[in-house]
Amino acid sequence: MLNTKVQASSVTSFFYSLRCKIMGCLFLLLIGFPLKANDNNIQDHNLKAVYLFRFAFLTTWGEFAPTNKQFNFCSDKELDTSHSLQALIKKRPSQAVFTPYTSIKELEQENCHIIYLSTQNSNVIQQLKTTQPHALLIGDGKPFVQSGGMIAFIKVNNRIKPLISLNNIKPTGLSIRSQLLSVSEIAINKESL
Questions:
Q1: In principle, which of 69, 71, 119, 123 could form an S-S bond with 56, CB 3.0–4.6 Å?
Q2: Which residues neighbour 79 within 8 Å (Cβ) at sequence distance 6 or greater?
Q3: 52 and 85 in contact (C-beta within 8 Å)?
Q4: DSSP per residue over 44-84, as a string?
Q5: Residue 76: which of 47, 52, 43 has the closest Cα?
Q6: Which residues lie closer than 8 Å to 83 by C-beta, 6 or more apart?
Q7: Residue 96 three-state SS
Q8: CA separation (Å) from 8 to 11, 93, 190?
Q9: Element (H or E) spanning 161, and its range?
């Protein structure tokens, strides 16, 4: 009897492990396949908007997760990526809200989870780290990460990819899930200082 229970438990564990691996592979396919920047129908700002939206769900927020289950995306209202992100969020109002801004000062009263910036100015980035200590700061290019940003969009082989600085994310108390890390470039120390 005991041997049968052990065998059943072992089989159940095997199938659970197999199911997890299959789900992980499917997830990677779903997130990697549609995000090719060289696809003629998709422009870079649309890809960035999709990534921005997914970042919220590929981050472990712990105690900083929104209590109402709606992530607040704050983005410079003049950017094409912001317009695409806003359109995406309108389709999923139960999961997210969009907060456009024209100046960093406007964000002092907000509780942003994701902030997309058009600047690489280290003073602005440091100011946001102070006023929004548990938000992901996302921008463009390696200089953004070198200025203290957490995730930057870069091009690798003509594809948009996230460049993630784990060092810059660490003080937020957040962590990036392995599914996102596996499709991203990781900034080495000199890139994230």
A1: 71
A2: 45, 116, 118
A3: yes
A4: HHHHHHHHHHHHHHTEE-GGGS-TTS-EEEEEETTSHHHHH
A5: 52
A6: 45
A7: strand
A8: 5, 43, 51
A9: strand 159-164
Q: Are 141 and 120 in contact (CB under 8 A)?
A: yes
- Report the distance separating Cα 61 and Cα 36, nearest Å: 27
Structure confidence by residue, pLDDT tens digits, 16-57: 555 545 545 444 444 444 444 444 446 899 999 999 999 999
3-state secondary structure of 36: coil
Contact 73, 52 (CB under 8 A): yes
- In this structure, the strands spanning 114-116 and 71-76 are parallel
32 HSE (CA, 13 A, CB side): 12
Q: What is the mean pLDDT of residues 89-111?
A: 94
